[in-house]
Amino acid sequence: MAPTDETAQDQAKAAEPDRPSTAPPVGPARMPRWLPRAMVLGLALYACYQLGDWAFHQLIGLLLNIVIAFFLALAVEPAVGRMAARGMRRGLATFLVFFGVMVVGVGFVVMLGSMLAGQIVEMVGEFPKYLDSVISWVNQIFRTSLSRVEVQDSLLRSDWLQKYVQNSASGVLDVSTTVLGGLFKLLTIFLFSFYFAADGPRLRRALCSVLPPARQMEVLRAWEIAVDKTGGYLYSRGLMALISGVAHYILLVALGVPYAPALAVWVGLISQFIPTIGTYLAGALPMLIAFKENPWYALWVLCFVVVYQQFENYLLQPKLTAKTVDIHPAVAFGSVVAGTALMGAVGALIAIPAVATLQAFLGAYVKRYDVTDDPRVQGHHRSRRASALARMRAALNRSRDAQPPPPAREDAD
């Protein structure tokens, strides 16, 4: 039986000598060389981010104190600069300015503290009389038969009073810690602001030494703008404090409340230079003293404080800020809201000068163009008659331009 073609081909392949295979051997895939380095670099960046985030949250209080100190140094820079221009050393000039501010502040606090202590002593001594008048008014209105002895016994035996006394006794240490922490923060702010103001030229020189000459001029211009805007902001706050003090002085004099001048100064300064809670803190003291004269006077003072606060927030403050700091009232109001949301009371205090400085600095370098004469951007609409006349005038000008010129006359021989 003859072999088939497939059998012959198999025998021929078996008779051929073995040849090496040209295909590469198949083995396990190797890791790219750059992958371990990329993984190590990613882990290192993540660790640096976590460390930076932890350090930032730990130092956020110090950073806020430095920001407050910087703006305080900008506020006293004009006075220190004038004294230094007359030949006085900047360190001594800065010390005199801060010493004057401290003397005025301490004197104001001592005066109001002594007045408040005297009023509290008188109110404690006359508290039974106030309680009798309130009880008689309640009995007359609600047809009850209460007595001062029953009210005092019920108050002394009440559970909430005992819990309040226990919580107050246990919270004395917390209050002391808070007061000491506040004093330490205040000392930190004054130290940093003193160094910023006294070493202002050295600080500016250190910043300019790492920048090219063109950038140095921009930094110095930004510094001048910050000083100008911070001074304008303090001027606006002082003006609002004056207006607030005068308004509350008129009310207190009309009601016959004692110590009206001191209370007016208290309301003006505290309400303007302590953000967020300054208004309520400032209005509490006049209400307390007015309550001593007549409980209805305290209600009148409360109503006036609330109404004046709304007038100041929505009408007076935006307009004064727009004129002194040169920013739009809506921008001023929005900056205060944003600063409060980001940094609390500190943000509300420094938001307006910071935004005004940024706006003035950007306005000095942003290129502007002439705006077209269009009612949509000019803010007024022309009447139909004026617009029709303008269209007719434009049509006449176009028809005049479209007419061919008259032929030239030939000169007579």
TrEMBL record:
Signal peptide: none annotated. InterPro entries: AI-2E-like. It comes from the Bacteria. Its main location: membrane. Residues 1-29 are annotated as: Disordered. The chain crosses the membrane at residues 58-80, 92-117, 179-198, 239-257, 263-282, 294-311, 331-358. It is found in: Cell membrane. It holds the Pfam family AI-2E_transport. One of its GO terms (biological process) is transmembrane transport. Keywords: Cell membrane, Membrane, Transmembrane, Transmembrane helix, Transport. GO terms for cellular component: plasma membrane. Belongs to the autoinducer-2 exporter (AI-2E) (TC 2.A.86) family. This is Putative PurR-regulated permease PerM. It comes from Streptomyces candidus.
